[in-house]
Amino acid sequence: MVRGRRVKAVFACTRPDDCCSPHPKRRGPKITLETNTITDFFKGQDGRDDIVLLQVDDIDDVPKTPVIKNMTCKEGPPTPHRIELCPDEAKIETKPKAKKRLNCQLSTDPKDNNHKVTDYFPVRRSVRKTKKTVMEEKQRTLEELLRNGVEEGLEVRIFSDKGRGVVTSRPFTKGDFVVEYSGDLIDINEAKRRELKYAQDLNTGCYMYYFKHNNQQYCVDATAESGKLGRLVNHSRNGNLITRTVAVDNKPRLVLIAKDDIKAGDEITYDYGDRSKESLKHHPWLAY
Amino acid sequence: MFEARLTASATFKKILDAIKDLLNEASFDCSESGIQLQAMDNSHVSLVSLMLRSDGFDKYRCDRNLTMGMNLANMAKIFKCANNEDTVTIKAQDDADIVTFMFEAKKQEKISDYEMKLMNLDQEHLGIPETDFSCVIRMPSGEFARICKDLAQFGESIMISCTKEGVKFSTGGDIGTANVKIAQTNNFEKEEESVTIEMQEPVSLTFACQYLNSFTKATPLASQVQLSMSDNVPLVVEYQIPDLGHLRFYLAPKIEEDEN
Asked: Which domain, by its residues, includes B199?
């Protein structure tokens, strides 16, 4: 049911022939009615000019003059005919809402032939990153460097007083990755075993780096002459590097990071961190 | 903490009326220098740029830069609750998700508070370069609104041609054509009624009527409107808001037939 609408068109025809046939031939005298309607004067195009709308009940906000589209002739005696609007079929032509939102209307317009503002003005994309993104990116580049075993901007120099050391050949800024302390990653038991072995030979230096990663004790043994530069970095209590552990492929690795800005040609050092009496006895330079 | 107080709440009403047809929602960027809004309509054909300088407010405080995404229809609803003479105060806490509008009646016997939820809008911001326009036309805003309204009956687009003689607005459609010519007049006594044209070279551009008509909703804001045009650059329709800032509309030109 169309909501709340009752339309009755009562048709009165005085003619004996069936004027409501699909092809009416009627061109006869006018029907006399109480009120004249416009259709009395002007013939409708379909020739059904004798249909008169007598009563229209508008309850809702349907247009005041409904467009009668689906007229049905009830079977019955030829006169008077009663024509009723079938409310279920009747499609009321409501006007499209006068004021549509402008942008909705245009975005759906298929023949929208307008340039866009974005054709003329560039969209500003912020290049700012969140702290988290920056950290992640840093971590990723660091891992990449470690995987490739990059050791750039460094060279070995032999010092008269302390033997080999590593100096920079380019400046490093604070926080830069400098070099990895690379060697065999071993657990604490294996480290103890090796310590005993190394202690027998006085010529072996101390290249065992003990550290904790995720509450687990590890050791990187760089005793073997590997050609890597990390193991040659000397000790200083006020070094310009600090050690960090980084997990690469779930394995902890030791990296040396610039603690301050480092000029080119400076020797890089870090604090070995070993202050035990035993060590100091054998390596008095650890105190400096 | 953000707080902005304006004696004339009518100005805000007028601004909202001017932009709420083009934009459903928009972000108000508040900083120490003032309140700014930049947003494109859904079809990305036009751009609204609003600037309200902090010194134009009776009281302005902005401790931290703040972006407030608001539904403009809802905001207009709230401002409908205010009388034109009311003083409006817009308040928001830092990192807050609501904004408060407070209306004070003139004699302060009535204070109304309205809180509105803020929205997180992901809107594209455009970088608008400084442009030296070929033509800058200043004319009475009412006159411009009238022309746009009249010509919209005849066609979907309006061609604005600016020569040293004057400006010609023309359109054509099924029923015929329409042309309105305006010559430069220098009415020194009534400056708001004068038409001035600054022209480097003649320009002729075609724009969609519909948008121009939306822009003219800003007519109550200013007595004069400024149209700036250059080839291959969007039209700028600017309304100066007295002592407070400006409202600018940018409109991309229609695609010429021969371009395809």
From this structure: 135-259
